[in-house]
Amino acid sequence: MPGNPDAYGQSEWSHFAVSNGFKFNDGLWANKFYYDDPKLAETFKWIVDAGKKGFIIPAKDCNGSNAPGHFAAGKGATILHGSWMINWYKENCKFEVGIAPLAN
Q1: 33 backbone dihedrals φ, ψ, rounded to 5°
Q2: Is residue 74 part of a domain?
Q3: More confident: 78 or 47
Q4: How far apart, in whole angstroms, are the C-alpha atoms of residue 5 and residue 31?
């Protein structure tokens, strides 16, 4: 489920892309980015396909500010958010919520 979009996909797609072999650049202060990497395109296709299957709410149906509410209403199986939202989910979801940390 998409959150608030940015060029780095912090809570939308970066974790999926990196786990698929994508890298943004060659490190701190690098001036070449790899947004043309086929691994990134594969990742976006996977996200779109997951949306079509109902696993991820498509971005067109859920802007970042509505994402937690859609998740709490059971309209998506997964949401990517920061640890600062744990209590909100515990208080607003009528189902058990599982939390998984992202590894780097």
Answers
A1: -110, 155
A2: yes
A3: 47
A4: 22
